[in-house]
TrEMBL record:
SUPFAM superfamilies: Acid phosphatase/Vanadium-dependent haloperoxidase. Keywords: Membrane, Transmembrane, Transmembrane helix. InterPro entries: PAP2/HPO, PAP2/HPO_sf. It holds the Pfam family PAP2. Residues 62-190 form the Phosphatidic acid phosphatase type 2/haloperoxidase domain. The chain crosses the membrane at residues 23-50, 62-84, 119-138, 150-167, 173-194, 215-238, 244-264, 271-291, 297-317. It comes from the Archaea. This is Phosphatase PAP2 family protein. CDD domains: PAP2_like (cd01610).
Amino acid sequence: MTGLVSAERGVGETALVDALPEVAVVLFAAVTHLADPWFLFGLLAVAYWFAGDRLAASPRRAGATAIAVVTCAYAAVALGKAWFALPRPPGAMPPADVPTWLPALLTGWYEAQVLSDGFGFPSGHATGGAAAYLALALVYDRAWTGGRRLLAAGVVAVAVAASRVVIEVHYLVDVVAGLAVGAGTVGLALWLAGDPRVRRRSASPADRRDPTTELDPAPAFLLAAVVSLAAAGVALAGGHTGEVVEAGIGIATGVGGAVGWRLVAGDESSVPVGIAVPALAVTGALWVGAYALADSVVVTLTATTAAVVAVVALPALPERIGAVRPDRDAGGWSDGNN
């Protein structure tokens, strides 16, 4: 199976990239941030917490499903990279060719973008970008028109995929495969979530008009955990330590998402800013800690699981706080029904 894709898989794209002006490469190095995992999960979390019914009939179900879709996409990437174990292009290895005109303040940033280790097939940025932006276009179905949403999603996903080739951290086949895997993951995850548009089942007019009202992201989260578990097994068998950690994070994210969703009814209002801001700080710290302490698998998995449970369960927190708030008039505790 690993022979299906060759380590020498370039098709001449490197020569084309080398002919580009340096300013174009720097611009594409910035574009690639649009599919950094931290950016995508931050974007999805904000949409999940704050989206209203102008964007979807059931914004909480829509948002959680989008998070589950991208979790599945990264699980597929982890399995693919561990399975094929193919190197990145030589341009991803140090030293970086930093433009002489680039300000010294941006030198470290640029080097971090154009240098990358780990395996290269399929592209995680292309996969995650395709999955995230296509999922957002589909689940928030009240924004713009369907054609505009899909066009915008496609433009951003392709731009991100192109950026990975331009900065020479991936071959063209890596990003094409990533786009395909990302799009396919969206279809499968939405099918698992019960989207009537994907299942093509007989649906009531209300379901066809508001397809997000019955979405259940839990099966997609659990699929991500299972695929990540398989990726961990493949990586462990191949002795790929870095991929074992990435797969472990995928397991924790899938399990954490499924657990967090059990605490949510799905019809909650948007999260108040006063709760969201400290929650973002806490979950962000947990994410940073998970990656900073990647040499301790137990700590990494624990921190990741806690962060994802917190993100997914947060919409239920305001109501739960209200259910146990002090009753100032009675001097006791209110059950929230007064």
